[in-house]
Design a protein that fits this description.
single chain, GMP Synthetase, Chain A, domain 3, SH3 type barrels, 5-stranded antiparallel sheet, 3-stranded mixed sheet, 3 helices
């Protein structure tokens, strides 16, 4: 392990190692459930953000249970940290194929990297593509639009009130 002039490990290595440890704890705690990790972020000041989703949704109790499982494996005397476990928000982009598949049948907005927006019913999704059925108008019949995932910047569920 390389050390800097003061004999300490570089900060980025400490964060990387910690992130791997947290990732292992999260995966261990979620194993065998319908819950899955969407995002894990650790800031330089040891704030840990864990976003989860589930095939059948996520409750506050799910977040509390995961938070306790993670905290139970960390020593606050050894390292000071703040932990935030939450569900992937309804207004957040769908990042994983598993999230996209879970939302088949819902209305979504897909935005490509070149700024093109497509709104329609999510009808299919896999590692390579996202398929939407756009609503028809008086002048145009409904269309099936297949977007390459590599070209898609974000896909969000359209929330209606």
């Amino acid at each position: 392990m390389q050390r800097n002039r003061r004999g300490r490990k570089p900060l980025f290595l400490l964060i990387m190692i910690e992130k791997i440890k947290i990732l292992e704890l999260v995966n261990q705690a979620l194993e065998g459930s319908d819950k899955f990790l969407v995002n894990l972020k650790i800031t330089p000041d040891n704030r840990i953000y864990v976003d989860i989703d589930g095939d059948n949704g996520v409750t506050i109790d799910d977040c509390i249970e995961l938070s306790r499982a993670i905290e139970g494996q960390l020593d606050r005397d050894e390292e000071d940290f703040a932990l935030d476990v939450s569900s992937a928000g309804a207004d957040q982009p769908l990042k994983l194929t598993r999230q996209l598949v879970k939302n088949i049948g819902r209305e979504v907005e897909a935005v490509t990297f070149d700024g093109q927006k497509t709104v329609g019913e999510l009808t299919a999704a896999d590692e390579a593509t996202v398929t939407l059925r756009t609503p028809g108008t008086k002048k145009q019949a409904p269309q099936e639009v297949v977007l390459q995932r590599r070209d898609v910047k974000s896909v969000k569920v359209v929330i209606k009130f």
